[in-house]
Amino acid sequence: MAIKEYIRKKFFPHIWCPGCGHGIVLNNLLRAVDELGLNKNDIVMVSGIGCSSRISGYVDFHSLHTLHGRALAFATGVKLSKPDLKVLVPMGDGDALAIGGNHFIHAARRNIDMTAIVMNNRIYGMTGGQHSPLSGCGITATTAPYFNIDHDFDVVELAKGAGATFIARTTTAHPHQIVKMLKEAIMHKGFSVVEVLSQCPTYFGRKNKQGDAANMMEIFKNNTTPIGSKAKEEQPDLIERGVFIQRDKPEYCDEYQRVVDQAMQ
């Protein structure tokens, strides 16, 4: 199936700002789905609120555009009722780890078979550029006009601690890696987390003097390195890219069905 068959063409052109990284994520998500040969009727995309959540409006899958921070809760209901479906949950900073943080850790703990795509642009872009739990100390935002003093979450380490069974990180400057990771995450049996560092030139780039989208993507290239590289030893502050966790563990829907089967005896 051609990639164009997976999109709702009538909703284009999209509403993202010029240079926004979320379009790159959408592009490579569609490539991953296409390369896997998935039937679009077997996919459900669930999103909350925010720039990233608009993705669910552009794909021609079954989709739910839900409440801010509650995408994983809705996705859990979908998966439990229709466990054979592939469930994709695109999220931004807030949906994933601010208002949605509690849902994130418990979805990971339960190991529900779905793919959480965390588009980390370190800012609340849709509502005016406020700092988020992923912004980090020292950045400037509309709610931190001098500098931010809040420490940020490490998405990978948080997902590890919560029990996710597939965890990966890449950036919009590494599109082939996005496709590869998403394919692996979608086919993994369990709760998968793929963090994609995504540029927001409108609010983060401008306020933090990082330039336009091209400049910000160059920063991603220069400030990240593959897991276990020699560069990481020499420059400890580099952010690692790659698959951090990939392991088997009983999946929640399968275990739930065992309970149902036992109750029916």
Give structural notes.
With 265 residues, this protein is of the alpha/beta class. It has a single domain (18-264), classed as Thiamin diphosphate (ThDP)-binding fold, Pyr/PP domains (Rossmann fold, 3-Layer(aba) Sandwich), CATH 3.40.50. The chain is built from eleven helices and eight strands. The chain has helices spanning 22-36, 55-58, 71-81, 93-97, 101-110, 155-162, 175-187, 201-207, 213-223, 230-234, 252-264; strands at residues 43-47, 62-65, 86-91, 114-120, 166-171, 191-197, 224-226, 239-246. An eight-stranded mixed β-sheet has the order 2-1-3-4-6-5-8-7, sandwiched between helices. β7 (224-226), α10 and β8 (239-246) form a beta-alpha-beta unit. α1 crosses α7 and α5 crosses α6. The longest helix is centred in the first third of the chain and has 15 residues, at 22-36. The N and C termini lie far apart (44 Å).
